């Protein structure tokens, strides 16, 4: 995955989704990241959650279960 800061990801996300609010996305990302750090796993398969994707879809899951794909080389994950 391509790692990107919470700030950058939130900025990119609101640019592509004009209805979304930067501060909301940022705080949701931080919350998802905290859950990931605390050991949150995908309810489906037990892999660590994909914080960025979990915020976009609105529920916690891993990359594969959220996207149905196994290649995540071109996708983003957030860090602080
Ligand atoms: Zn999963």
Automatic annotation (TrEMBL):
Q: What is this protein called?
A: Uncharacterized protein
Organism this protein belongs to = Desulfotruncus arcticus DSM 17038
